[in-house]
Amino acid sequence: MTGISERVRRVRNELAPAETRVVEALLHDYPMSGLGSVGDLAAAAGVSAPTVLRLVSKLGFGGYPEFREHLRGEVAARLFSPVEAYPRAAGSAGDLLATAEQRYAEAVHATFRGLDLAETERAVAALCDPAATVLVAGGRFSGILATHLAAYLQILRPGVEEVPPEPGRRARALLSVDAATVLVVFDYRRHQPDTVEFGRHARARGARVVLLCDPFLSPLAPDADVLLTTSVAGPPPFDSAAGALMAVEMLIGAVAERLGASARKRLTDFELHANGADPAAVPAEAVDRDPADRHPA
Description:
The protein is globular and about 70 Å long. The chain has helices at 4-11, 17-28, 38-45, 49-58, 64-78, 93-114, 117-128, 143-156, 167-174, 193-204, 242-259, 261-274, 284-288, and strands at residues 133-137, 160-162, 181-187, 208-213, 226-229. It contains 13 helices and five strands. The longest helix is centred in the middle third of the chain and has 22 residues, at 93-114.
């Protein structure tokens, strides 16, 4: 099922200002805001009912009832339960490997097809901003993605901190959040209220928010400056982080490439320290060589 967010992304350059206001009203309390009548959504957006219907048509629906039914499906998807998806019977080892390969490959392909280039570029630019402090946060399960991203960014640039999903740690982190802060948030279904609130509080204090979430959208989506959605498809019973992990790896590689020499110098120093060497004793020309040249096969 193609999510409303993906449909909006495809047509956003074709929308009139009034239709854009409908999108903003829809995303403000998504998806519940679209489950009322045409008049309700029109009133929330401050536009006419025909404007709502024009937007619905541009999104590829035959009418408002079809649009609303699609939203009901997204509500059900948001309430996804691993118990309901639990596999009923085991297959053969061959089936297991083939099925897993197919589903993970589909998730990765869906993720990269769904990522918007302009949004991705904005995310990379924010992560490379030398004047910004970068905070990274996730939830109960998506926290592992936050740890992965923060660990590599800390090697590539200064001013990066992971904020664990603990109320005290988040409260302390908020004390230093301002307009010079970039907050990367991972929030996947079932979306975690405390993670969403942390993102909203950071946004209220001036932070730029980069949100990675599933295609059904985190409640934090309307407050995000950059929104990257990744597939959660995979073998049951749990949502898969494969698509999100590939997006994180892509961001890390793009940041390393854009930061260039400064990131390479930090990586060189990190490797020397990790191996117990004294960076001051290493000739400058060794630092300038390609890292692959310093490791014999």
